[in-house]
């Protein structure tokens, strides 16, 4: 009688051979392509359109050991941007009450109001880059929240001069 491998043992050995081949193949990179060391951590993120060439993000007159420039501080204080964002959200309040809050309140009277904190990030020109929403557990309604997320367009503020993230409290009605 000949000796045979069991199915689980064959799978294990095949997986080990494939893993070794992938490891060795990826270890050296594609053939004929020189690899350059890439920085790992520490370098701040910069948008692609902010850097026109490889050395453009370096400080003027800096050598090879130069560090990339830090993002500029906003020319408008964060508190002022938060107030401008609150005004932009307030402009949408009447439409959100009509479209989202009143239908949900008619279907289910409790809770009497809903409270949110909007996490808003604006670019240097004042356009919304990202938006998150946090519900207050004591005053929440999933139907209203889903409607607000769908109905609220991107908000804008006057240009702050740099990317800014703010938290803005908001409630309905």
Please state the structural category.
alpha+beta
Span between termini: 82 Å
Q: How large is the count of helical segments?
A: 4
Number of strands: 3
Identify low-pLDDT runs.
48-60, 62-66
Q: Compute the average pLDDT.
A: 77
* Biggest sheet descriptor: 3 strands, antiparallel
**What is the C-alpha radius of gyration, as a whole number of Å?**
27 Å
Describe the structure.
By secondary structure, the protein is of the alpha+beta class. It has a domain at 78-172. It has helices at residues 7-27, 78-90, 93-107, 142-151; strands at 114-122, 128-135, 164-172. The model is unreliable at 48-60 and 62-66 (pLDDT under 50). This is AgmX/PglI C-terminal domain-containing protein.
Q: Topology of this protein?
A:
Elements: H1 7-27, H2 78-90, H3 93-107, E1 114-122, E2 128-135, H4 142-151, E3 164-172
Helix pairs in contact: 3-4
Protein name: AgmX/PglI C-terminal domain-containing protein
Summarize the structure.
This protein is of the alpha+beta class and 173 residues long. The protein has helices at 7-27, 78-90, 93-107, 142-151; strands spanning 114-122, 128-135, 164-172.
Any descriptors?
4 helices, AgmX/PglI C-terminal domain-containing protein, 15% strand, 3 strands, three-stranded antiparallel sheet, alpha+beta, single chain
